[in-house]
Design goal:
This protein has 305 residues and is an alpha+beta fold. It is built from six helices and 13 strands. The chain has helices at 2-79, 91-97, 103-110, 112-115, 138-161, 294-300, and strands at 81-84, 127-130, 181-182, 201-204, 210-212, 217-224, 230-236, 241-247, 249-250, 257-258, 263-266, 278-283, 291-292.
């Protein structure tokens, strides 16, 4: 019996321990399961919070974008200003004093509608925009580029129609400047001229452009001419006189003989002007007031203009 009792007691203890172990094992197994469930729930909640946070940031960014664009547009508008032309002003002078990026050409481009086809013709009281604001949206920018592209295409035929390089005619005459467009025409009326009209024709060229004698002749004067600035007057062989005004520099002197096509000076903006150009006259005498139509004169000499 004692042996049997000893045999049964260990079995009973092992069984109890097995239950305890099983119980302990069950608890151990249950704890990770509960932990995993809790972790999963926490992760889902955290992801939801993150999505909501990103959504809020995106919404705030979308709401602030128009405000930022408005501020940018307002800044550009604030940078632009209006300038009233004064007596004695020129586009180049205004561009210098107002620090216009791009110089007088940019100023003229921004105000072409107000100034007209001749950048040399501005008058006191004319309102000019300084520092025009650029387009403020991509759609406006695209439209602007399309318009500019169309304008360039439309302008191409006109560019081709401009006078070509000066060439001597059969009669030995040529244009006073190569490849220039015509600005203010002959006999345009206006109070800014003492005679009441424009006594010559303006060739629109930048400062420093070479000017040629339209024919062979003799220089009768070369120097300062008051409102004409630096000027050269040449007596041509047929008895007419060719006058070149507003020059930046002179290449000939009084009494000098010149040939057709010889350089007489460089274009500029001296004297009473609103921008660089060549004022060209044909006269029957060397004096002011004896003018004739300069383009008709050149055409009569076989020059294409």
């Amino acid at each position: 019996m004692p042996a049997k009792g000893k045999h049964r007691r260990p079995k009973s203890q092992r069984f109890t321990r097995s239950i305890a172990v099983a119980g302990t094992g069950g608890a151990a197994l249950a704890l990770p399961l509960l932990g995993a469930t809790g972790a999963h729930a926490a992760t889902s909640q955290s992801a939801a919070d993150s999505v909501a946070s990103v959504s809020n940031v995106a919404n705030k960014a979308a709401e602030s974008a128009p405000a930022a664009a408005d501020k940018k547009a307002e800044a550009k508008k604030a940078a632009a200003k209006t300038y009233a032309v004064r007596a004695g002003d020129s586009l180049s002078k205004i561009a210098d004093t107002q620090d216009v990026s791009g110089g007088w050409k940019k100023l003229y481009e921004d105000n072409r509608k107000e100034i007209g086809g001749d950048p040399a013709l501005i008058h006191p009281g004319l309102k000019l925009s300084i520092g025009k604001a650029a387009a403020t949206s991509s759609s406006d920018s695209g439209a602007s580029k399309t318009t500019q592209s169309s304008a360039k295409k439309a302008a191409a035929p006109k560019a081709a129609a401009a006078p070509k390089a000066a060439e001597a005619s059969a009669a030995g005459f040529t244009l006073p400047v190569a490849g220039a467009g015509i600005g203010t025409p002959y006999k345009m009326s206006g109070s800014m001229w003492s005679s009441g009209y424009h006594t010559g024709v303006d060739f629109v060229v930048p400062t420093g452009t070479s000017l040629k004698s339209v024919g062979a002749g003799t220089v009768v004067s070369a120097g300062w001419g008051g409102a004409y600035g630096n000027q050269v007057v040449i007596q041509l062989e047929d008895g007419h006189y060719a006058q070149y005004a507003h020059l930046s520099s002179l290449s000939v002197s009084a009494g000098q003989a010149v040939t057709e096509g010889q350089q007489v000076g460089l274009s500029g903006a001296t004297g009473n002007v609103t921008g660089p150009h060549l004022h060209f006259e044909i006269r029957t005498t060397p004096d002011y007031g004896s003018d004739v139509d300069p383009l008709a004169y050149l055409r009569g000499k076989g020059v294409s203009v």
